[in-house]
Amino acid sequence: MMLETEIKLRVKDPKKIREKLRAAGALHTKTAKQVDGIFDYPDGRMKKKGEVMRLRVLIPIWPDGERIAIVTRKGKKRGKGAVKVRTENEFETDDLKGALEELKEQGLEKKLEYMKQTEFWTLGKIKVTLDHFPHFPELGYFLELEASLKEIEKGMKLLSLSKKDAVKETYPEMMWKILNKKK
Fold it and tell me: Which H helix or E strand runs over 99?
């Protein structure tokens, strides 16, 4: 079990953030569509505990690559600050059907599905993603920095970012809010 440490920030101008990334020496490694299925038990106990089980299908747009499935279980968020820390277990597979069958076998059912487009960057030891949701333009763009707390703080400074733009909600939490408003 590993700990994931990340900060998610709302981005007003994606073109400007790309310029900042390049100026800081970041490398754009790929762009992909990601279809995320969020799974839970019928009684919703994972959501109630703040845990997430996700099956992501990653479809590379640039450069070309193989479609893969990534199964991720995230634990409850720790702490109350802008930087989120939580346990994360993750594995990749090229057997999407088998992964889906295993989740169902464990008693889980799909509760939510959404698609986002993600640009993947590296900035030193920091994994950087720039996300947007083509089907939910009201959400806008988000930048995530994932690394140690020290590296995240260094990256924030390099990119002239402020913790005041941090978003504490997860993408599934944002989606549920939007979908509930549309009902």
Answer: helix 96-105
| pLDDT tens per residue across span 16-28 | 999 999 999 999 9
Residue 125: which of 161, 87, 158, 76 has the closest Cα?
158
Query: pTM for this structure?
Result: 0.93
Residue 98's SS3 state is helix
68-74 and 52-62 strand pairing? antiparallel
Strands (E), the chain: 2-11, 27-40, 52-62, 68-74, 84-93, 109-123, 126-132, 141-146
**In the 3-class helix/strand/coil scheme, how is 136-169 assigned residue by residue?**
CHHHCEEEEEECCHHHHHHHHHHCCCCHHHECCC
Whole-number Å distance between alpha carbons of 126 and 138:
27
Residue in 123, 130, 119 with CA at minimum distance from that of residue 157: 123
Quote the radius of gyration of the chain (alpha carbons, Å): 16
